[in-house]
Amino acid sequence: MDDKVKVAEFIPRLEFGGVESMILNYISHLPSKDIFEFHVISQDIYDPNCVQLFTDLGIVVHLVTHKKKNILKHCIEVWNILKKQQFDVVHSHMTLMNFYVLFMARLLGVETRISHSHNAFKMSLFKVKFVLPIMRYLNKKAANVWMACGYEAGAFLFGNKEMENQKVIILNNAIDENEFKYNEVKRKKIRSKLGIKNEYVIGHIGRFMEQKNHMYLVDVFVRVLHCIPDAKLILIGAGELYENIQNKITELGISNSVFFIGNVTNPQDYYQAMDVFVLPSLFEGLPVVTIEAQAAGLKCIVSDNVDKRCKITPNVEFLSISKENYNLWVKRIILSKNEERDSNAINYIVSGGYSIKIEAKKLENLYLGKGKKVY
Length: 375
Fold this sequence. Notes:
Distance between the termini: 29 Å
Order of helices and strands: EHEHEHEHEHEHHEHHEHEHEHEHEEHHH
Structural class: alpha/beta
């Protein structure tokens, strides 16, 4: 493997999240992936099944001590991996925290250092005024390639001026559009597996964490049940708030209407079983789930905190997640019941720049040193 281009992908955890899916998707679709040797470095929060997906692709996985457990030990372990492996590329996906691994990489002479922003976090006024400018400065100094999944995520980490001057590379959260194209056979198979017949199905895919705002989704769904008593809610994902949401569902007495699927390796099949996709996030960059759901022809009802550029098809509607707005979410979900699936969705995805075949080539060129650098 000595003659291969060695690439390190830094991510905060390995638990079937959006970043994990994005990395797997891109690596598996690189036009010349055999010329690369990939390593993933993550903290010791992981799902063994997710780790297996990476190793099955021939990716070397390194699990290091979590920063919150022992920051010094964490940094020493990261440094030792970087020093031993002598990577050609270090690509960090930890948004605000990208800088420290990239500074290590810079000290070790790594030629291509990518700071990738995947989110536009909500922050207090104090942090926006005093903390964010420092984090932006450190990230810009540590990296020589600035990257983001969308405009909002890029502006958050690097600034609006840098976005307007096109110093930040937008790498779309692209997908293999053919995997997500509506498939009636898969729809029937998944629905049969879950015991769902003709019921109206609301779907959501996301890690069970505060950002994804599951509590709001549940409060909306309870109100939907008042109007459509046999409606079903499919929740796909895992995370620290999983049990909290399960307990909430039980307390409300609606357990028979909600399916907790957990993490899956075939989310493309579950989109087929849904009738509408709902994402009431507190904040997001440009979430890949919105692209996937649109590719499946679904109507998407999304928080207005999400980057509006995720609207690739006409089937996305943005709503405020204020408590006063519950009834509007319910109304839009119910009205979507009468809307047909978009048979032209795939064409929108491809023309919008979200085909993985095209975007993967862009990333490959960056890894080969052919892309633009800030300095």
